[in-house]
## 1
Amino acid sequence: MKKARELPAAELSDLSAVRVVSADRAHTPFWRDERVLRVFAQLAFLAIILLLLGYLVNNMLQALSRQGLVLGFSFLSSTAGFDIGETLIPFDRSQTYGRAFVVGLLNTVNVSVWGILFATLLGVVVGVARLSQNILVQFLARFYIEALRNVPLLVLLIFVYAGVFLNFPQIRQALRVGPVMLSNRGVYLPWPIPTETFDDFRLFLLAGVIASAAIWVLLWRRHKGSGPAWPKWVWSAGVGVGLVALGWVVLIAQPPLALEYPEVEGLKVSGGKRFTPEFMALWSGLVIYTAAFIADVVRAGIQSVSKGQVEAARALGLNGAQTLRLVVFPQALRVIIPPLTSHYLNLTKNSSLAVAVGYPDLFSVSGTILNQSGRALEIIALAMSIYLSLSLLTSLFMNWYNRRTRLVER
Amino acid sequence: MSLRPATAASKADVVLPPPTERYPLLGWVWKHLFTPWHNALLTVLALGLLYLLAVPFAQWALTQARWEVVVVNLRLLLIGQYPLEQVWRLWLSVHVLAFVAGLTIGSTVRAGLWRAVPILAAPWALALVADFDLATRAHLGALPVVGLVAFVLGRLGHVYVRRHVIGLWVIYFPLFILLVRGLTAEEGWLPVVPTNVWGGLVLTFVLTVAGIIFSFPIGVLLALGRRSNLPLVRWASVVYIELVRGVPLVTILFMAQIMLPLFLPSNVTIDRVLRAVVGIVLFTAAYQAENVRGGLQAISRGQYEAAYALGLNSLQTNLFIILPQALRNVIPVLVGQFIALYKDTSLVAIVGLLDLLGIAKSVLAQPAYIGTQREVYLFISAIYWLFSYVMSYLSQRLEKALGVGER
């Protein structure tokens, strides 16, 4: 008879093993032997699951054969026959369903990345404002958080789309806020356009990036070797920006980037960068909704740093900004990152609500393909597995980052 | 001096509260809004922002907005096409809701009761102001009374009531579904109302409540499965939970609408509301499982060992020892998940059901009300906001009253 220690070390198994050992050793009948029972329980569980799955799949195959459908992904290479409003890569109706999927996926990634970026910025600002000593600022932040957390995202998205972005005036009476132009056909921003000298300017850009990275590493090494703590960011950023500025000055005869302003010409707009109402509604809705949650996470994180830490930092002579940067934030980050990850994941998954405002993201394009080809099972499976891999990728990255920042326990 | 708390009888012993910082009003404003100097800058910025946002909004809401679209379609938005002669069942469920909520508040909430005043006053204000028929007004008038009576009862027997408050909610949810759906055939006293006429806020509530009732036990089972020492059971739970948590709800709802009929035998038909419920339950169960697992992980191992030492088997240990403690620890998280579920039910509008959002869209499709999106969507946002705010408030109170994290 084995001893308890040699049994699998899962949390409870050694407990049950203790009881087995303490029972009458030689004469435990097999129907009361936990080791046998465990195997039987799992076999029974497996059998039930397999039976259930088999039953469902069998029903499905029968239903498919009644409709004369065959499973398979060969339809992905047939012609799409529909256009997509917004694409990051060229696409037209003569291309395949497969490429349409890729277009949708890129749109999803596009809106998620920009959404995550701006939601984080807004969320941190609101979260810090929530802890402001200024009562008015605190009230505004609190109002923002409480108002948005308790409203469904879908309602917010549709409200922003139909109530705000489609409600802007027509193109001829377009609203102008500074250089930005607002109309019901989209938001137009001035956009830098590279000129002939841009290729030369690129060299300066490259040199700037390399130099600032090198300086940062150098100063960091010196600092780690107990050298003086130079302001690393100031120096590296200063040198980088300086090099780029030098490039601009050298090429001043023909500036490498020209800012192009949107202009109304009859019924069209020339110049500038257009953001469609669909993209703007989805992006801004995701940003302001997710920022409310991120703000709460940031607030909780900052509050989790005990007051003694701040007092100790002040006693050591750090100023307010240093206390925040060197003492409070690194510790708050440990509390903030895990929930922040799940909000990033939520934002990515929530971008599938694009279908309600007509932005051609992965899910919305899938819906169109489904209507055209009737391949429900394959398309839903494909869309789900892509979302799943996006989620897994995001959480892998955030877990890696979390491992880097968490407390090293001894 | 004695350390006993002072009573009214012995005035000499009155213990004064510790001195606080007191300012005149202007001093208070000065301290909180204008010192140090950058605070003054922030104040000016915030005031400017407030002005920029609030003034145009107030102007629009008071002068330009066509609120009559909400008034005319109020019944549609709230109960959809529910048959008029059966509306008493909805009222009954609302009264029971007021009663249970009153008991909950009465037995758990001690301070800050003034917050309840607007909630109590709202039905009376509605009954007085809006143009309803007599029955509606009577119901509205009775609602705060029911709530108040329940509140007093809860306050009187708070020790006893508090213990059973969760049980009351557990009973209320199925009762609500039963009342909405009905029990008997056409001629009976509680005829079945077909799901195709369910709509508006009622459908939103039905989806929420059905989601809560069914996702919770599945979630608990999945959580126990994930911590099981049988590898097969553990892997199956992990795969299910991670699969579902990795995909958006709308894809699952879509799958439920399109695929569910395929998975079932051809002679079984399943109506669209039920399909949506299945999708919502499958989705929420995975999230609830993770929340419950959090509670389970907080239970110390000694609890298991003690239970085994007393001779309880696994089922008894989990049911009587582990789960009651684990679930109590995660009540706020569970309620938070239910609030998320309530908000997520709006996604069924994408698959074509007429819940609060879906019916708002169909109201906006009427030619007479083109261009009133802001009014309608603001109104339904306010409804969504109100209920989820109340839910989160009640769960915070319940958490305090049950002493979560204190024992």
## 2
Amino acid sequence: MTERAETAIRLRGLGRDYGDRIALDGIDLDLATGQTLLVLGPNGSGKTTLLRVLATLLRPGRGEVSVLGSELPGDSWKLRGRIGYVGHEPLLYEDLTGRENLLFHARLHGLDRDRAESRIEADLESMEMGRRADDRVSEFSAGMRQRIAICRAVLHRPDLLLLDEPDSNLDPDGRDLARRLIGPASGRTRVLVSHEPDRAGAEADRVLELAHGGTVAA
Amino acid sequence: MTSSLTAFKAILGKDLRTELRTMRSLPAMVLFAVTTFVIFRFGLDRTVLSGSLAGGVLWMTLLFAAILGINRIFLAEREEGGFDAIRLAPVERSTLFLAKAAALFTYLVVLELIVVPTFALFFLPHWSGLVPLIPVLAGANLGLAALGTLISSMAVNSRARDLLVPLLLLPLVVPLMIAATGASAPLLEAAGPAYDDYGTWLLVMALYDGIFCLVGYAVFEFLLED
């Protein structure tokens, strides 16, 4: 059973630089377990950097970061496996099939073969990718890659979803299907990066607006 | 944490399956080596090589063929997001080093299964030195796999990757190549294999392999940091 923290994400004065350029500065935030945070902001405002810090893919430069009860960067090893991440890249190997990619990720997350195969089957059906799952990813369209990437992100049933424009490349049907796995009904804590402010009311409990690395509104 | 053995098998299996399917590294390595032997055969104008000249030709060819594979070992991880995928999983990052080194070791074994008999066909009057050559090949493969994986992981994020790998690898691999040619030369004598300093050279290779396996395993965690 995974231990659940009351506060899923706690940030105090989070900062991160790339050389001389400040990407994030002075970000404070509390997000409760089960809530959805919508992160808004123009290109280059630090949205993706924030998500990569929360995903343990980047080390925070300054401040305190606590995610699902783990302090980053020190306890990041405890957090891996509890995060589902959909980024700009699908993180899929082009020369493997969709199913082989998912099986590979399931093995990395320690799922045994039977459990992995049943989950993969169910998730592929949810995203209506069962028919093409045995084709190589290199033969997929961008939208199909995104559907498999969403299956990959939820395969290990993470507690926290970090979603960087997860609807990109998806057609309207794909967006509807994706909502079942990574939408509010998934019941997971979510951080959603989007360029669509109108999603705030429908999908988000909190909104964090970034501009040039700093917080405009929280 | 996922068990290191499970993750090791998953990463190694993925690499071998991909290579079997695409044949992006091995055919180039084999073709390079065989072409080099043809050039040596006509360039030196000799049909028989022995001793240190035979050892030198064999190891120089294997080393440069290996560089082709070393250059590509992390390419999919870099270009298709494999680094991020593995960093998001509850897997010890050193497992990636071990799995990649094992994949490279396997490529080198397959390369040698084709190239060493070809070398013997081209240049050796008899094949009796090939059996005692096996431990020398294994020792050199282990060193090349450990060092190659380490260097490739450092160079893969650079645009000058193809230049950086040989620049960093070649100076560091000199002791291993000296030991490999030192052990091989007496085995490839025209009169039949001799075993002068054979054990000593194998010991030198074992020490080299041990050092670079340990260094690679210890520092790989830090190399994958952002």
